[in-house]
Design a protein that fits this description.
Belongs to the Rap family. The chain is mainly α and 384 residues long. The protein has one domain: Tetratricopeptide repeat domain (Serine Threonine Protein Phosphatase 5, Tetratricopeptide repeat, Alpha Horseshoe), CATH 1.25.40. It is 84% helix and 0% strand. α2 packs antiparallel against α3, α4 runs antiparallel to α5 and α12 runs antiparallel to α13. The N and C termini lie far apart (118 Å). 42% of the residues are buried.
Amino acid sequence: MKITSALSLFLVISLPLLVVAQKHDSLRAVLDTVRGEQKVKTLNELFRENLYHDPVKALGYSREALNLATEIEDKRGMAASYNNLGVAYRNQGALDKALEYYITSLKIYESLKNQEGVATTKNNIANIYSMKKDYGQAMRYLEDSYAIFSKLGDQNKVIGTMNNLGNLYNDIQLFEKAHKYLSEAYQLSEKNGVKYADPLNNIGNIYFKQGNYDKAIEQYEKALAIEKDQGSRLGLLNVITNLGIAYTKAKNSTFAETYLAQAVLLCKELHAFTSLPAIYKASAENYFNQGKMKEAYEMLLKYDDEREKIYGEQSSRNIAQMEMVLDFQEKERELEVLKKESEIQRLELRNSRLFIVMVILGVFFVLAIINLLYRDRKRKLISP
């Protein structure tokens, strides 16, 4: 059964709900006074402030930001908007669309040589591959992201990528390595003075995979307290889903049903449909544990339907095609660089040859002048 991993899609820490509301009001006030690139930036900030609390409103801000950025040819704003759209669609379960937006964002950030943007977008691309169980590609993008953020010295984003690496190692059942990354991520967040629920939630996932449901629930409860304090509704959804699944496995039907019902409601409110397959599958098992076969069968049908929407064969093919396009574009860029290097070398060689010719011509010219002066002097000496 799939446990929900808490992934830092934006690699930012959620603020308490009151602070978020105050910041949202402040940004809305700013939005009425700014123009151009500053307005694009403000719209993207409003997306981030609303993502975990009102994702539908957040999506509206991101679309508005992209339209304006495109109109005024603000490439950095376009890259940020495409990345944000990718996050929004990923949360809704539209993985193909999310990857399409991420790849577009990555291309723009690479053209701008914006390393922070490249690292953030690669982190998000890794998330899609991890969800598709293509762990090799996920590791490739995530390690690139981690290396860039470490080089930039951005501690919050290093925490996010460490958290995601921990998830990935957990997925491939390298539990010791997973626990190491997640523990270090949590310790680093504590050192920075910020409560960070994701590593605790994901450490709970490790215990869950090892069949230690009591310890898993203990970690989820700690994460739940932080998410409630911060008011992150998407964070709450992740943890509540995991609690519902863990209580199902522990055969505590009452708690399982309570948490799973809450999770379904939150999924629909937040349009976060990627969590629905896991919730419906756990609900089917919970009904089965109670001997409610009709309800269990109905939940399995819902599970199959939602799973096909998100993880179907067509979705996998579309991702593979987009990856081929991305690889081809990367090869084209490499070829272009080689061509430029070859052109530079050719020009340097041409300039060197030209310099040699000029030097030789210069020598001939000097010799000609000397010869002319010598002849003129000789004529003067022999003239009567």
